[in-house]
Each structure stands twice: as structure tokens, then as C-alpha cells.
Amino acid sequence: MSHGSHSGHGGHSHGGGGHESGGGGHSHFGVACSGDHGNQQNVVEEVVVNDIYTAASLGNLEMVRNFIEHDNIDVNQRKSDGTTALHWAAFKAQYNVVRYLVDKGAEIEVDSTEEKNTPLMWACIGGDLRVVHLLISKGADATKKRYTWL
Questions:
Q1: Assigned domain for 82 exists
Q2: How far apart are CA 102 and CA 76, in angstroms?
Q3: What CATH number is given to the structural domain containing 86?
Q4: How far apart are CA 68 and CA 75, in angstroms?
């Protein structure tokens, strides 16, 4: 199993929060699929979801809900880099997970430790305007700026 990293924005990296498949693949609730359309073979790799960050990045609302409501994981729990499940859901354009996390009290203006970026900034990088609008409507500060690449 490999966890991809997203780079190309001023040298920063968003690795370890979930599985990114390359080559035109896509992710679904714990299973990442990528196809080599040249020879019609599909490669299926099971993604182990053992934390709220991976579940959030994959858009697995049922698992995120289970982590919070049954395992009593704090909705604002941070990884070592300071990111939260909301950062990962926002970056991966997981609208329903973002809405759930915010409704459960996720901090919207929480900065990551390394880059000092908020979930809104990560949503902008992810490129889903629905997530961006949702976060702004819930109080995210659209005037904050950290790096020139944003």
C-alpha cells in the first residue's frame, strides 16, 4: 500500500492523509482503483482506513461518523503536522464529510502546524467551489493569506 503525496504548490506536500491514485484513477470508500486503459487491465489496491483523516479524505462519511460518535475521537484531533479531518475532507472535496464535521463542531479557522493553512485554504487547493462556499458560509475567513502560491 502506498500513500501518495500532492505537490507542486510552492514545494509543499499533502501526503499521508489518504490515498491518491495516479494515472487517471479514482478512490472509493476504502478501495482505490486505477486503470491502464491501453490494455484494459484494472489494478485494485485496498486502502486500509484506520484513522479519521484517511476516512475523511476518502469521503467515507459512515466511518468518520463512527470514529466520532462511537470511538469518541475528538472532531478537532490533529495529526503531527497540525492538520485535522476537516483539512483532509476539504482538500479532497468531500462535501458531505466537510458538512458533517462542521456540524459536529470542527474548528474552521484551525491552522496546520507546518504551513499555517486553514481548511478553507486546502479547499481552494482542492478546487471544489461547493466546499469553499460551505466553509465561508460557516465562518471561514476568506481574507487570510499565508503563502503567495495561494
A1: yes
A2: 10
A3: 1.25.40.20
A4: 6
Burial zone of 30 (CB within 10 Å; 0-12 exposed, 13-18 middle, 19+ buried): middle
Task: State the CB neighbour count (10 A cutoff) for residue 2.
Answer: 10
Joined grid coordinates for residue 15 = 501526503
Domain membership flag for residue 147:
no
Q: In this predicted model, what pLDDT tens digit does every residue of 91-131 receive, in sequence order?
A: 999 999 999 999 999 999 877 666 678 899 989 999 999 99
d(Cα 88, Cα 67) in Å, to the nearest integer? 15
Contact 95, 130 (CB under 8 A): yes
Does residue 1 belong to any structural domain of this protein? Answer: no
Tens of pLDDT, residue by residue over 43-64, are: 656 667 889 999 999 999 999 9
Query: Distance between CA 7 and CA 13 in Å, rounded?
Result: 5
